[in-house]
């Protein structure tokens, strides 16, 4: 089963969120329904990027790399 790294953007608050999941569509729904504590403050979210990886470990490692690289930008 594939895993995905995704980047969301809140235009209202000019904020980005980076995460990983097996189901990007379901995660976006959860973020926009207020079920995720951190992201509920910045609804609505738009999907900016989704990258597919073969394993959960690969997806998580990429998520961390993106967060480190963009830490000062976001």
Automatic annotation (TrEMBL):
Residues 1-74 form the GIY-YIG domain. SUPFAM superfamilies: GIY-YIG endonuclease. InterPro entries: GIY-YIG_endonuc (IPR000305), GIY-YIG_endonuc_sf (IPR035901), UPF0213_domain (IPR050190). Gene3D superfamilies: GIY-YIG endonuclease. PANTHER family: UPF0213 PROTEIN YHBQ (PTHR34477:SF1). Belongs to the UPF0213 family. This is GIY-YIG nuclease family protein.
């Amino acid at each position: 089963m594939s895993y995905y790294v995704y980047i969301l953007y809140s235009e209202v608050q000019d904020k980005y969120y980076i995460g990983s999941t097996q189901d990007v569509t379901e995660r976006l729904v959860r973020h926009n329904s207020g079920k995720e504590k951190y992201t509920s403050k910045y609804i609505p979210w738009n999907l900016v990027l989704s990258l597919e990886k073969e394993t959960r470990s690969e997806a998580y490692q990429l998520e961390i790399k993106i967060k480190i690289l963009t830490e000062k930008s976001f």
